[in-house]
Amino acid sequence: MNFKKLIFLFTLALATISCSSDDDGPGPYVFSNANLSGNYKTTLLTSDIEETYTVNGTEVKSVTKVVGDTFQMTTVFGADGSYSASGQYRIETKVTTAGNTNTTSEIILVDDEGAYSISPDKKRLTITIDGDAETFDVSLFNETKLNLKKEVNETIDDIPTVGTFKVNYERI
């Protein structure tokens, strides 16, 4: 009887030890230049912007919603920090001010080259083109996807502005 219990306990201990390393799985995908480098296609582009104007002492809110579609673009992040984006996409812009809505649509042509830098500890990506830098929070990064988000809450040209911008990429 003791022998059977001993074999049972040994088998249980062995199973526990061998299973624990299988359950760990791979660690998180590290946000680094090496892991980011590659070609990506854009899968989502949106922005929501709210501006508050003062007209004759009265506040007037203007809400702008931008949605991109029909993406025919390639974005390349090089392991050396180089950045390029080329192609085209369509955006629909809907501006609502004082209850009136105006909708426009246009094709955007892209041919950009620049550089990027990352802040792995804060999960931020800064893209610089022609000296202009934009910093985005990385909301998702894995082997196949990169999702960027930027929130703005500042005064631009004396107009209080709040906005959220999102761009999602998928590795190709």
TrEMBL record:
Sorted UniProt keywords: Signal
Signal peptide limits: 1-21
Protein name (database record): Lipocalin-like domain-containing protein
Organism of origin: Aequorivita xiaoshiensis
